[in-house]
Sequence to fold (488 residues):
Amino acid sequence: MTGALTIAGLGPGDDALVTPEVSAALASATDILGYAPYVARVAPRDGLTLHPSDNRMELQRASDALRLASEGRNVVVVSSGDPGVFAMASAVFEALEASSEWRDLPIRVLPGITAMLAAAARIGAPLGHDFCAINLSDNLKPWSVIEKRLRLAAEADFAIALYNPRSVSRPDGFQRALETLRDAGAGERIVIFARAVTTPDEKIETVQLSEARAEMADMRTLVIIGNSATRRVGRWVYAPRQVR
Amino acid sequence: MTGALTIAGLGPGDDALVTPEVSAALASATDILGYAPYVARVAPRDGLTLHPSDNRMELQRASDALRLASEGRNVVVVSSGDPGVFAMASAVFEALEASSEWRDLPIRVLPGITAMLAAAARIGAPLGHDFCAINLSDNLKPWSVIEKRLRLAAEADFAIALYNPRSVSRPDGFQRALETLRDAGAGERIVIFARAVTTPDEKIETVQLSEARAEMADMRTLVIIGNSATRRVGRWVYAPRQVR
Fold:
């Protein structure tokens, strides 16, 4: 048997948002690797070995997955959302680059509904005009880079999706990000706090950036900051298509 | 019967990338509206009326959909990709804002796999680090805004997804965009031309930005420009997670 590695996105949480392509990959897998809460979304069955691991184990997990595939297993690495957006796909290609022995393995990346798309859909269309996505975790990049990108994104008048805004180990960065955006003149923009979107814990809140507080976000929150033209209609928030 | 309006994303082309949520909405619809090639992706059946329309008819289509829903129909507006990314969702909320009579209609937005996620998955993980998405069509915004955003995106070192890079009615903008990015110092970055991703016409090409030519894109192409650290491993292109 020839092994293969698939890197698959499970979407934001609701099974109705898992693509048939991903469901088929899970159904034919022999081994599933990923951060434990994501692996827990896959039902156990005979012939399937689940390999849950801790957060921040991305590179080790990627190497383990490549090794298993090289041994003939049909391996799926699962990410929440889309595997190519601040998730496992980059880690797998880093591990692939680090060791030439796996270079010829069949690899597939299967896209998923990333959190910002699910969050945007719930509240209307805040990403209907040009936008950017910034990972606020400074585990793998200096804060100065994050701050520079926030300033330039505000100047470009992008809507801004902020992934991983805040966690127990990074309690202060999001507050600094909010201050940076206020300094950059974005204080009147609409901010969307979308927590645990499409799960039973879903909670969505909108405030003006000047009134946003860091405590409104935690590690399950996706934050979207509208552009300067983003507006409300009834319970909805959307970015107009036209800019003058 | 109470009518309802659903704005649904069909993904990039392959039916295996249509979410079960969207498939269910299509199965229970009485009326489907959208740009003709997208409506053509929905199989005809008894009790279903298809309403294909031309491109650039977005606002009229949105009003028609809201009116049909107000008359008690179960209406689905379809977009390719994700309806909230340069697609129909913003147009529907604009139409909703323009006329208060439809303000209480039940509306849902159902996300889909947008082109940049599908394209990124095919080539590796070029959106694995911070990125932005810019619509190159200047039908609804002045070119000066596009150019400013390209310069700032290059300065921020975002990977850049370019939607609608080129069409018969806009043959020259993409060339100007490439020149702007070269001027901004991005000439050595990797560019991915992803045409008709996940369809039988799929074609993916990668070149250095300095060698990119406008003719490499048409209206079915999604262009991704890597950030300054984006690299190749074998046939793959990916953005490393770490920035120093």
